[in-house]
Amino acid sequence: MASRALPSLNALRAFEAAARLGSLGRAGDELHVTHGAVSRQVRLLEDDLGIALFLREGRGLRLTPAGERLREAAGTAFDQLQATVRTLRRNDGAATRAIGCPGSLLARWIIPRLERLHADLPGLRLHFAPQESEPDPALPGLDAVLLAGAPPWPPGWRAWALGPERIGPVLSPRHPEFARLAVQAPDALLQEALLHTASRPQAWPQWAKPYGLDPERLRTGAGFEHLYYLLEAAVAGLGIAIAPAPLVAADLAADRLAAPWGFVDTGAQWCLCTRAAEDAQLDRLAAWLRAELAQRPPG
Predict the structure, then answer these.
(1) Average per-residue pLDDT in the chain?
(2) Has domain 95-161+270-293 been given CATH number 3.40.1700.10?
(3) Phi and psi dihedrals of 292, rounded to 5?
(4) What's the mean pLDDT in 71-86?
(5) Count of CB atoms within 10 A of residue 3's CB?
(6) How are beta strands 97-101 and 144-149 bridged, if at all?
(7) 95-161+270-293 and 166-267 have identical folds
(8) Which CATH architecture is the domain 9-88 placed in?
(9) Are 203 and 193 in contact (CB under 8 A)?
(10) Which listed residue, of 21, 65, 102, 133, carries a Cα 20 to 30 Å from 150's Cα?
């Protein structure tokens, strides 16, 4: 039988992600490689096929007619592979489950609990993958995602609700104005330059509204690309940050941070979401996560 004359699968995977997401950068984030690596793979694929697949328009991309045809074929093929792999994994209780979650949640909440997770759920093999962007509804390369959100979910998703998401302002006792600010009412924050993150610009307005504060009066100070860096800046005493309660619970318990103004519900839920119709291992994981979110952190 003749061998299948296919291009590099890495190149096809890079192309499919870039075509589906409309961005080389977002494709790199999904595949955990650099923007340049995706670009090189796409160029290799175009050279192999002898035809352009994308038209570069400024910083954007537009598929050529040939690119549209290949996107449809590659997307269908990867979807079928994904469905088969999920079925095989469900039939093998010992198989590793790939779980996507925000990097800040992984660093500040999951990793400190990994030892207990392994002890409580022996035999459950997990691989956690940092994911900062909105997850693709097809969950490529993942068995589930852990996120804060609310219905309606993408078609085909099944979600375990784990607990309400609550956010609140935090600052360090090292903050030069800590003694003054810690006894002030919430409206005192309208006079402060607040630390914020580009990944969640709506967080401060979400906190302000339940207190009857006008979000338009909030003043933003230094901004950070990711929540992890934002909280490190707060711990260092550089300003007042805002964060989900689970991600700062250990810092509050250790007096590295304080939350004088408490936390408010955002209306979202922490959820574990999957496309699998049934998976007993994910059922076990969801129950464990739900119990952990209801407890104080270790230490």
Answers:
(1) 89
(2) no
(3) -65, -40
(4) 79
(5) 5
(6) parallel
(7) yes
(8) Orthogonal Bundle (1.10)
(9) no
(10) 21
Cβ contacts of 101 within 8 Å, gap of 6 or more: 110, 128, 129, 130, 131, 145, 146, 147
Contact between 167 and 240 (Cβ < 8 Å): no
pLDDT range class, residue 299, cuts 50, 70, 90: very low
pLDDT band at 2 (very low <50, low <70, confident <90, very high): very low
In the 3-class helix/strand/coil scheme, how is the chain assigned residue by residue? CCCCCCCCHHHHHHHHHHHHHCCHHHHHHHHCCCHHHHHHHHHHHHHHHCCCCEEEECCEEEECHHHHHHHHHHHHHHHHHHHHHHHHHHCCCCCCEEEEECHHHHHHHHHHHHHHHHHHCCCCCEEEEECCCCCCCCCCCCCEEEEEECCCCCCCCEEEEEEEEEEEEEECCCCCCHHHHCCCCHHHHHHCEEEEECCCCCHHHHHHHHHCCCHHHCEEEEEECCHHHHHHHHHCCCCCEEEEHHHHHHHHHCCCCECCCCCEEEEEEEEEEECCCCCHHHHHHHHHHHHHHCCCCCC
Nearest to 12 by CA among 60, 100, 90, 72: 72
Is residue 257 within 8 A of residue 251, CB to CB? The reply is yes
- pLDDT tens for 108-158 read 999 999 999 999 999 899 999 988 778 889 898 899 999 999 999 999 999
Q: Is the pTM of this model over 0.70?
A: no
Domain boundaries, given as residue ranges, for the chain: 9-88, 95-161+270-293, 166-267
